[in-house]
Design brief:
Helix content is 39%, strand content 17%. The protein has a single domain, classed as Alpha-Beta Plaits. With 153 residues, it is an alpha+beta fold. It is globular, with a radius of gyration of 15 Å. The chain has helices at residues 10-14, 18-28, 42-48, 58-65, 80-88, 101-105, 120-130, 144-147, and strands at 2-8, 31-38, 70-77, 114-116. The structure holds adenosine-3',5'-cyclic-monophosphate. Adenosine-3',5'-cyclic-monophosphate (CMP) is lined by residues 52, 57, 61, 91, 109-110, 112, 115.
Amino acid sequence: METSLVLLKPDCVQRRLIGEIIGRFERKGLNVVGMRMLQVSPALSREHYAEHVSKPFYPNLEEFITSAPIVALAVEGLEAIRVIREMLGATNGLKAAPGTIRGDYSSSRQMNLVHASDSPESAARELALYFPGEQICRYSPTLTGSFRAADEG
Ligand code: CMP
């Protein structure tokens, strides 16, 4: 089992796509085990996007990610980090394949609706930023047996 940090970004909240996107993860069989609505501060943006802070696009990215509330999710499932990244599609909505979240709903490189962790190391770092302490709610989903066979994990 893996847990990924997913952010529904300000464009997702402003466009009233929160339910639509969470629904895709739920229908796939992933478990939402953490959910928080918050306004990202410039300091949190710099921490989250530490690898991008020195890039030319960072000032615009910070202005965007702090512009309205976001919804942070902890999403659990088998191979969840890879599965969710593939559900998102390519970073640029114009290049993302149809059928992916960005391919279906985004026409932008910056306003690409959703962020998701790209590795187990990023997931651990990002989950600690948005869900510090004991804020993740693990439970045993009663429908697991309808999503996959017992020997699949
Ligand atoms: P995300 O998956 O959250 O990771 C970094 C974000 O920076 C990315 O989605 C985009 O929103 C944004 N981004 C990446 N590359 C560019 C770029 N070249 N110009 C503007 N924004 C970018």
